[in-house]
Amino acid sequence: MSHSAVSQAAAVSVSIGNERSLTRYVFKHNNSISFNTKPWSSSLALTQKTSTIRDAKRYSNTTICMSVQQASSSKVNVSPIELEDPTDPPLNLYKPKDSYTAKIVSVERVVGPKAPGETCHIVIDHDGNLPYWEGQSYGVIPPGENPKKPGAPHNVRLYSIASTRYGDFFDGKTASLCVRRAVYYDPETGKEDPSKNGVCSNFLCDSKPGDKIQITGPSGKVMLLPENDPNATHIMIATGTGVAPYRGYLRRLFMENVPNYKFGGLAWLFLGVANTDSLLYDDEFSKYLKDHPDNFRFDKALSREEKNKKGGKMYVQDKIEEYSDEIFKLLDNGAHIYFCGLKGMMPGIQDTLKRVAEERGESWDAKLSQLRKNKQWHVEVY
Ligand code: FAD
């Protein structure tokens, strides 16, 4: 697809049948309509069904409204506006002993056939009762008994929310999660042992539209998007599902028409995954690159497909090293830097940043403590 074809593209949304989970964003170009560039995700979405007629009606209305808005403006209007109340983020509205019963809207596999493992995008209907801000997490209590405490429910598992406060349908009634299915392979035989697979991630990835789900939260303040300066720089570093909070940020910055927050700064995303098939939300991010080239940068590290300059696997820290001069200058000028994903990502990144700082004649420890003091340093790893 040529650049000009894309810039002429109109974003519209269509309803296939009458049901919300069948609604897809499509981009129209050169007289052809494509759902997105990954055929597997749209075909899987088409197998999903919403649970009630009430939902179907609600979302078919949303769809019509969205189509009109998108035709007349490049950003989507959002409601209800009360969600912009600037006081404090909502925190722990529901606790493990008093959780909220929400409903699954859709579960969509969002990686291709050559991705190692499975990752799903899961939309949850909270009907406006579990509001949250971008960068927060929900807790999920999987059904069943806690094997370590017979008779008691499972412990809560946390998941970063991957949508904005308005949700994927822009009405403030849903939240989306990006969940990687935890599968256990016996180290000796190399075979999967289903009895040791992750409880909650498998429950989530196997759930069906209409299923009930116990939610706690929202929780977390460390990954909230600071909005006091609309021209700030945000450097976002993720491995795998660590991209979840950034999907929320980027929809807020580039997709939604938020009344009091018009972003004019720079958002720079570094995403590390195994291969092209493992890329998450790539269609959304590629569209921001085309529509907002002065405000968005996107660098990918594909560890199983690309080599770093030393001939080893390309990890996200190698990309950081490649742009370290720019990153250090941006940090010196007040940029925020965020890290989200597996715990294992941090040592390699910290080593790289320390080495670069030393090459520049700076003390990394002093710089890090300054970044922390200035609230520029945001880490959520698990
Ligand atoms: P568990 O049942 O808790 O098992 C944990 C691991 O142990 C699994 O890999 C399982 O295979 C293995 N295991 C189980 N039994 C055995 C055994 N007998 N011997 C050896 N190994 C065993 N995850 C996401 O996918 N997306 C997110 O956006 C996300 N955000 C998070 C945000 C925060 C703030 C935190 C703290 C965590 C986040 N997580 C996220 C991780 C998530 O909370 C869970 O830890 C993850 O999904 C695994 O939970 P589970 O119930 O599936 O696995």
UniProtKB/TrEMBL annotation:
Family of this protein: Belongs to the ferredoxin--NADP reductase type 1 family.
List the cofactors.
FAD
Reaction(s) catalysed by this chain, per the record, are:
2 reduced [2Fe-2S]-[ferredoxin] + NADP(+) + H(+) = 2 oxidized [2Fe-2S]-[ferredoxin] + NADPH
Q: Where in the cell is it found?
A: Plastid, Chloroplast
The record lists the organism as Brassica cretica (Mustard)
Molecular function as annotated in GO? ferredoxin-NADP+ reductase activity; poly(U) RNA binding
Gene Ontology annotations of biological process type: photosynthesis
Give the enzyme class: oxidoreductase
Q: Which GO terms describe its cellular component?
A: chloroplast
Name this protein carries in UniProt: Ferredoxin--NADP reductase, chloroplastic
Q: Which residues form the signal peptide?
A: none
Q: What is its EC number?
A: 1.18.1.2
* Protein keywords: Chloroplast, Electron transport, FAD, Flavoprotein, NADP, Oxidoreductase, Photosynthesis, Plastid, Transit peptide, Transport
